[in-house]
Amino acid sequence: MSDPETKNKCIERDDGTWFCEKINKAIQKPKRRFILNCRVKDHTGSQVVTVFDGQAVQMLGHTTDELFDMHVLGHHIRVELIYKKAIFTVYYLSLRVKMETYNNETCQKIVVIAMKPLKHDSECAELTTAIATFQ
After folding, report:
1. Could you read off the pLDDT of 42-97 as tens digits, one per residue?
2. What's this model's pTM, rounded to 2 decimal places?
3. I want to staple 8 with a disulfide (CB 3.0 to 4.6 A). Which of 22, 81, 128, 129 is the partner?
């Protein structure tokens, strides 16, 4: 859950209200947001990337609130099918890659910052044109 304005993480208090510790503010109606860890693959190999809310909604076609409501209503198979539909879908991804050190251990952190679906017809036309220029 997060503050809709700042996107900062909110925690639920014992009395059922939500609070953002970062800005020290009570939040009336927090927003659910995706943080998905996905494995992406291309011809060079595979890597785990983090997909945040905007790109996750684009990938799955549903908001977190919609999936949460389906889950609460017991439509578990429908939720599973939504996730399975996203598997093996081809996208152009823009990634932010950085090295982070935590407890003297360095790891690579990769985040999807933009994505667009691959359009096979326009991609084929573009590649055909590129090949023709080399001949």
Report:
1. 889 999 999 999 999 999 999 999 999 999 999 999 999 999 999 888 899 999 99
2. 0.76
3. 22
- Could you tell me the end-to-end alpha-carbon distance of the chain, in angstroms, rounded to an integer? 55
86, 99 contact by CB (below 8 A): no
Phi and psi based region of residue 65 (left: phi greater than 0; alpha: psi -120 to 50; beta: remaining): alpha
3-state secondary structure of 7: coil
Q: Domain map of the chain by residue range?
A: 1-31, 34-117
List the alpha helices (DSSP H) in the chain: 53-60, 64-72, 76-86, 120-134
| Partners of 39 in beta bridges | 48
Distance CA 115, CA 123 (A): 15
Superfamily of domain 34-117: Nucleic acid-binding proteins (2.40.50.140)
Q: By the 8 A CB rule, do 40 and 94 touch? A: no
